[in-house]
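Whiteboard transcription, Tuesday session. T.W. wrote the structure tokens on the left side:
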């Protein structure tokens, strides 16, 4: 049975005194201020055609001239979004995974997955404006991005969210994350060199957003962050 004290009144603001940034203007909804257009992934000039829908998924990994089937790429693109909310940003950067198997052969040979059918795997993250990863927001698009995208592929322009120190030479670590690379030493401060790749240092305080227009996205996110901090009287910690 639900207690009346736990029911949120949608007509009133929802205030969290212990962490003001979680607060919102309406009790039963989060206001979306802007919708940033995500970048479109392109594979480059080596890709000649899409794989047939019923072909083995492994072909898209073995042969550089073959892209994933067109149907799954449309689903991935349709699933992408970047919402700039009143107190945070919400991002979905989906990937592709094999669908579940519907046959005994698939269960045995592919560990329960289909050898040909693919589905979208959503990867949704919400970052509140008082998170240290929102300290610095900048356009980090690579040099000659259109040319590099034509030759080698790409995912659009890049916006980098990060928290650095030592003159921008090191990232702050996101310590205390359960199951992360630093879960065994959550009580210790972590220093991560800026040049360390994401695959080696997943606990670095950084995140890359792929967008259609990086300069416009940076301007929108910075203004939303600053306005939220002023409105909610949130001081940097």
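and on the right, the sequence the group agreed on:
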């Amino acid at each position: 049975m639900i207690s009346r004290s736990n029911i949120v009144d949608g007509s009133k603001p929802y205030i969290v005194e212990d962490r003001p940034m979680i607060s919102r203007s309406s009790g039963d909804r989060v206001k979306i201020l802007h919708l940033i257009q995500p970048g479109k992934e392109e594979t480059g000039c080596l890709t000649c055609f899409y794989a047939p829908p019923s072909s083995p998924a492994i072909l898209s990994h073995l042969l550089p001239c073959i892209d994933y089937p067109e149907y799954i790429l449309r689903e991935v693109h349709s699933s992408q979004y970047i919402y700039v909310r009143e107190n945070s940003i919400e991002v979905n950067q989906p990937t592709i995974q094999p669908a579940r198997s519907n046959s005994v052969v698939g269960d045995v040979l592919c560990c329960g997955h289909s050898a040909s059918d693919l589905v979208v795997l959503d990867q949704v993250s919400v970052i509140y404006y008082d998170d240290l990863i929102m300290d610095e927001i900048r356009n980090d698009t690579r040099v000659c991005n259109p040319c590099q995208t034509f030759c080698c592929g790409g995912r659009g322009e890049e916006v980098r969210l990060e928290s650095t120190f030592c003159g921008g030479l090191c990232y702050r670590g996101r310590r205390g994350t359960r199951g992360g690379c630093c879960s065994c030493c959550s009580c210790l401060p972590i220093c991560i060199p800026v040049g360390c790749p994401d695959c080696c240092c997943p606990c670095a305080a950084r995140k890359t957003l792929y967008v259609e227009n990086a300069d416009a996205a940076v301007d929108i996110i910075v203004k939303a962050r600053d306005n939220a901090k002023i409105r909610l009287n949130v001081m940097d910690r």
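Someone added at the bottom: The longest strand covers residues 113-121.
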